[in-house]
Amino acid sequence: MSGIRVRSPRELRGQRRRRAHGCWDHLVVAVLWPMHEANLGTLLRTCDAVGACLAVPRLPWVPEALARGNTLRTRSCVHWTGHDPVRWLIDQKSRPETTVVGVELADESVRLGDLKSARNRTIAVLGHERTGIPPEAVDQLDVVVEIPMVGTGSSLNVAVAGSLVLYRLAGLM
């Protein structure tokens, strides 16, 4: 054995940085065109891990998907966007000191490794898993981030992509 000591869950909780968290105070991930139920649960868990909020449309299946995905069984920060995702995005962008970051493949995109931590209120927009972010929503983005890939796929699923971007924006990687 190499002498590695694994920390207990209690020790880990005690070592986490203390930071007040309230809905809408700093970091929001917006899944405006959700496709798969399991992905919402994964993102909800990531939101808890990084102190972010999740914004989703009130589609008939979404509340149940969030309830199933919330494996921590604690109250999570979820905001309902309404039925017009682009209008919601325009409204959010009009709030003071808000930066809208889209996760998309674009000529002007910044590589994930070069993305800076969120300094002000930031909304990370995730597109539909097959079609991406619609053109009318792309017009609302301040920054576009791309996640480099070496394999044969053209993109990651929305939960994995969103989790990577959230950790980067939260300054945890």
Automatic annotation (TrEMBL):
Domain tRNA/rRNA methyltransferase SpoU type stretches: 27-167
Cited InterPro entries: Alpha/beta_knot_MTases, rRNA_Methyltransferase, SpoU_MeTrfase, tRNA_m1G_MTases_N
TM regions (residue ranges): none
Keywords: Methyltransferase, Transferase
Region forming the signal peptide: none
Claim: Mitochondrion is one of the keywords in the record: no
Source organism, top-level taxon: Bacteria
Record flagged with keyword Heme: no
GO MF, one example: RNA binding
A GO BP annotation: RNA processing
PANTHER family (alphabetical): RRNA METHYLTRANSFERASE 3, RRNA METHYLTRANSFERASE 3, MITOCHONDRIAL
Protein name: TrmH family RNA methyltransferase
Organism (species): Kribbella albertanoniae
